[in-house]
Amino acid sequence: MKKVNVAVVGATGVVGSKIVEVLEERDFPVNEFHPMASAKSAGGSIKFKGKDYVVEELNEKSFENSGIDIALFAAGGDVSEKYVPLAVKNGVRVVDNSSFYRMEEGVPLVIPEVNPDAIKDDDMIIANPNCSTIQSVVALKPLYDKYGIKRIVYNTYQAVSGAGMKGLNDLKEGTTNKFKYPIKNNVLAQIDVFLDNGYTKEEMKMVNETRKILGDDSLRITCTAVRVPVENSHAISINVELEKEFEVEDLIETLRAGKNIIIEDDIKNEVYPIPERASGTDEVYIGRIRRDESIDNGVNIWVVADNIRKGAATNAVENAELLLEED
Question: Among 45, 170, 280, 289, which residue's beta carbon has the most beta carbons within 10 A?
């Protein structure tokens, strides 16, 4: 691959700093490197591939005559709303980790294991899905392709790292700077704001993004998203009603053959995915695979993945790699 000039917007945050780390791990072909952040965080130093870089202040002129080829945004929806159009105006292709562009018509919402072909040569903005959606749809894609899916019930158990440094600090210190109630020794049945239909924004993200990624608006999906006192890696219980009959053993092998999936399902030895083992990895772990005996063609699966890596940073870098392949 040819070397390109890369910017990471929000480079000092939880996801942004992980993007920097993953770019180095995967030996992304970086020529010039531009870490960017708000005025509050600018001026500090970030190490990348053995070299120290000064964090640049993100402003209206950051992308003018910059020579930047690809920008990975990890600074929230308000920042993306304002600065992604400025980047695109200056010929910069963007991978955006915020929710701002995910449901916009014409913007591909991409998980490389699931729908890499959604990216076209002339796409300037690639949206990174929600962290919980990413690991869920990686798990569901093999089942969708082989058996078809009628209905999905998501119940998420989401780590506090998904709420950024304030969330992590609330867990460690017992404060309520990020959450309304203490997350330490607690479980909060709310992620993001409540909507008029009684669901939270996070829950509806999973519903709508799953349909868009799989290209199937007919899917019936419901979700309850819960924050748990775990530092990192999300766990999700997924109940799926399939279109076709299945044998559990065949279904397990279908999942095992899926991209980036590791099966941990040995109930005799009480082996199943846990966040502690998933943290620091890029795979999606699946276990507790069992028939739902209350409906025809139903199955329950338990899905765990590192929400900061595969759920955000790694998926973003993989999408940037797809942009290079398109070039």
Answer: 170
3-state secondary structure of 19: helix
Residues 158, 227 contacting (CB under 8 angstroms): yes
Please tell me the number of Cα atoms within 13 Å of 264 on its side-chain side. 17
pTM exceeds 0.70:
yes
pLDDT in tens, 56-92: 999 999 999 999 999 999 999 999 999 999 999 999 9
For residue 170, the SS3 value is: helix
Question: What is the number of residues in the chain?
Answer: 327
Active site residues: 131, 234
CA distance 177 to 161: 14
Contacts with 35 (C-beta within 8 Å, 6 or more apart), sequence order = 7, 8, 11, 12, 16, 20, 46, 48, 53, 54, 55, 56
Report the C-alpha gap between 56 and 181 in whole angstroms: 35
Q: Are 248 and 289 in contact (CB under 8 A)?
A: yes
- How far apart are the C-alpha atoms of 59 and 16, rounded to whole Å? 17
Phi (first) and psi of residue 288, to 5 degrees: 50, 40
- Alpha helix (H) ranges present in 26-111? 77-89
